[in-house]
Amino acid sequence: MKLDNANILITGGTLGIGHATAELLIKYGANLAITGRDENRTQRAARALGAFPITADVADPGDIRHTFTTFMNEFGRLDVLINNAGIGLHKPLDEVTLEDFEKIYRVNVFGAAMMAAGAARIFKKQRHGHIINIGSTAATKSYEGGTVYASSKAALRSMTQSWQMELRRYNVRVMLINPSEVTTAFGREEREERRTEPNKLRGQEIAWAIKSALEMDNRGFIPELAVWATNPF
């Protein structure tokens, strides 16, 4: 696809991967809207980027409806959904609670699925569109303390495969990007950016992978792409 004048919606676009991706895609001519849960942060990020702000929480069905209504009223057409919003949790198995699963799954699984469902309704009518899901390498190889988070990303991986099979006949490409560890605000309650560690991934590397996957001619797509730091040690 051509990024110039494409209308793109990125969830969780105020920091980290979402912010870096919005910045890169805008540079190449895309029209961007970003969502964020905090209104002040979302407005500040949108002003800095030159994006359109939508204050919304993907864990809230009402906010999801508001997101699509607001986006379509502003842009009139949706070309790309980037399902980036996500939260993390690292806990030993014997400390995990049902509430932990509910909190993480409501964003990483249910929110992503309902955002994709809203986009799919638009894309099936248009008979074109693109969905990028931001997963994790933890979906294929978990880690100690990853019971809740890794399983949520494994669920997203499985859903991505289902959506690929469902939507290809409508000329809709569904792609999964699996970052390894990225030095962003992810997993931090205070939602402040971590200082970049020189050998680890930044949001910019994931943004580059997303841009590259989108720019392939529409006759083909990359179902799944993992991005690893070359030498993080």
TrEMBL record:
Residue intervals of the Ketoreductase domain: 6-180
InterPro entries: KR_dom, NAD(P)-bd_dom_sf, Sc_DH/Rdtase_CS, SDR_fam
Annotated GO MF terms: oxidoreductase activity
Domain of life: Bacteria
Keyword vocabulary terms for this entry: Oxidoreductase
Keyword Oxidoreductase among UniProt keywords: yes
Keyword presence, Transmembrane helix: no
PANTHER family with a match to the protein in the record: ALCOHOL DEHYDROGENASE
UniProt record similarity statement: Belongs to the short-chain dehydrogenases/reductases (SDR) family.
The name this protein goes by in its record: SDR family oxidoreductase
Organism in which the protein naturally occurs: Pontibacter burrus
Organism lineage string: Bacteria, Pseudomonadati, Bacteroidota, Cytophagia, Cytophagales
